[in-house]
DNA sequence: ACGACGGTCACCCGAAAGAGTTACGGGTGA
DNA sequence: TCACCCGTAACTCTTTCGGGTGACCGTCGT
């Protein structure tokens, strides 16, 4: 029983991927998820043989998702999906333990051959590259809420606006902000946003 | 009577956009079109105050649509809609005369604020710049000083600290800050830093 | 069962930020 | 020449931020 889990925040892309992966010989089941949290839930319930994860995701980021999947099961086989040239994100995810990546605008044949290969060989890995893997150890771990607040900041929202968006009081947003500042070592929101980008926590 | 015209080839996206734009304060009517030809027809019949056009369209392309709209009425206010990182298309459309662009996966608040801004100010432009077709990056042009100030912000410096670093008064730093906010379309320093990263102006 | 942590909310307070406005000299392009 | 932008600076006024502190309630791990 070979199953694949596909994660992408865009419903259209998700469906297209689901259909494409389903045509790979040997794949019996394809499940989908819209975000990192859902991936972790589904993975906990039913471990697929392969996971495809979009690098750019709201909420729990791709890097964090990869890290948590691997801490749950170090044997998890993960392939990143990327749209454009955000190679930084891919690099970080690969450094975090993903097996490789796929361009979303790769041909269907390309996708199929990569998936086939990854399924056939449990040790399959994209050519190992020299990445900033050393940096990853020090990467601050933000909670989902903290990342949501950080993302709000990166979109120019005030604490009050973020609170309205997340159905929280402004004071609660401030608490999350203070905690994430401390974790990141940021002196203010602008600094926090910059560090978020440098760590690949937001994009 | 404020009206907005939305053009997108995907019915789902079209409806979602229509609903989102309809919630913008001051907008009384939202009409939709599925392609460039229809936009031109509707524009001929009844000129809206603002037009949102998907960059990716079948038949008459977005760039050609923009060009024809502007040749019919040079005051037409057009904002491009883009899905991914097809900056080429956006850049061409902006070069052709579009006022700016919006990521389709931008938050509803972001969309609303951009539309509000564009409706409020007839001269609104995402980044007032002298675009050449070769510009291609479409990145807003910040002056050296503005980039220095933005970099200071990205390192968590206060305006006063940035001033001391650059041998400027705090008030001067504030002036540079205000100007770069306007150029980037940022609402505060955190947003400006985020946009700086997204445009590749800082790292 | 205990503590640590995360999520929620509240209050106070001083320090920043940001908006608006004005101003002046220099450079540059139309 | 005139208009426009840039760099510099000052002023006021309001909003927002950030730190400190305390509190209550879950959950999770040990």
Note down, in words, how this protein is organized.
The structure is a homodimer of 203-residue chains. In chain A, strand 3 (50-54), helix 3 (62-72) and strand 4 form a beta-alpha-beta unit. The first copy, chain A, is built from ten helices and five strands. Residues 83-88 and 127-138 of chain A have low confidence and may be disordered. The longest helix of chain A has 15 residues, at 170-184. Chain A is elongated. With 203 residues, chain A is of the alpha/beta class. In chain A, 52% of the residues lie in helices and 12% in strands. The first copy, chain A, has helices at residues 11-22, 36-45, 62-72, 87-96, 108-120, 133-137, 144-154, 159-166, 170-184, 189-199; strands spanning 3-7, 29-33, 50-54, 78-82, 100-103. The first copy, chain A, has two domains: 3-136, Rossmann fold (3-Layer(aba) Sandwich), CATH 3.40.50.2300; 140-199, Arc Repressor Mutant, subunit A (Orthogonal Bundle), CATH 1.10.10. Chain A has a five-stranded parallel beta sheet, with helices on both faces. In chain A, helix 3 runs parallel beside helix 4 (87-96) and helix 7 (144-154) packs across helix 8. Chain A binds chain B through residues 9-10, 83-86, 153-158, 161, 165, 186-194, 197-198, 202-203, and chain B through 84-85, 105, 107, 109-110, 153-158, 186-194, 197-198, 202-203. Chain A binds a DNA duplex (30 and 30 nucleotides) through helix 9.
Summarize, please.
The structure is a homodimer of 203-residue chains. The first copy, chain A, is of the alpha/beta class.
